[in-house]
UniProtKB/TrEMBL annotation:
<dbReference type="GO" id="GO:0030626">
    <property type="term" value="F:U12 snRNA binding"/>
</dbReference>
<dbReference type="GO" id="GO:0005689">
    <property type="term" value="C:U12-type spliceosomal complex"/>
</dbReference>
<dbReference type="InterPro" id="IPR045164">
    <property type="entry name" value="RBM41/RNPC3"/>
</dbReference>
<dbReference type="GO" id="GO:0097157">
    <property type="term" value="F:pre-mRNA intronic binding"/>
</dbReference>
<keyword id="KW-0694">RNA-binding</keyword>
<protein>
    <submittedName>
        <fullName>RNA binding motif protein 41</fullName>
    </submittedName>
</protein>
<dbReference type="GO" id="GO:0000398">
    <property type="term" value="P:mRNA splicing, via spliceosome"/>
</dbReference>
Amino acid sequence: MKTGRVNSSLSSDELLLEDLETEGERQLKSLLHHQLDTTVSIEQCKSKRRCFAPAAFYKPFGEEAAGALTLSQFQALQESNKETASLRELGLSDSEILLWKNRASTGKGSGLGAAPEATQDRLHAIQEKMEEHQRILALPQRFAGSKQLSRREMEIENALFQGTDRHSFLRALYHEGLWSALAGEHVGMKLHPRLIFVCKTVFNRR
């Protein structure tokens, strides 16, 4: 009969920590269980499908720069190409990019083309489209299957494994929820824990 030997250099707290399961380990086991589950139907897989925004179209810089150009002409063309690439990354089409880059001269036309009110409405829609795209890009990026923890759960997790790097890469499998932001990370505002508790109670009663 084999008996396991305990390293005498480990304290009782360290031994207890080794027996505990982190939230990341629990999430990893759950993901592995779903991955190995062969009873899942096609309909269930479709219900979990996630759609992503299409990738930005890349247009190489070269055709416009072909031929004999002065240094100033090449630099101006290069700056214009950078602006076009930036606008394309914000989700604009070629026609929207052309209209946006020429917005300064839209009110100085010769009377031909679209009405000024329609053009301004379209420019406003383009601006809203860019702002929305920037807002989405500014959102925190996390794993799609990341589990949201309450403030209390996150405090317990941090208290148990503070100062350790045990499976630190698994921390991407969980994240703090909304109430942790209200606890001090949202707009630099710090609320009293008692106030947070009252707010939670009110919302749970609704």
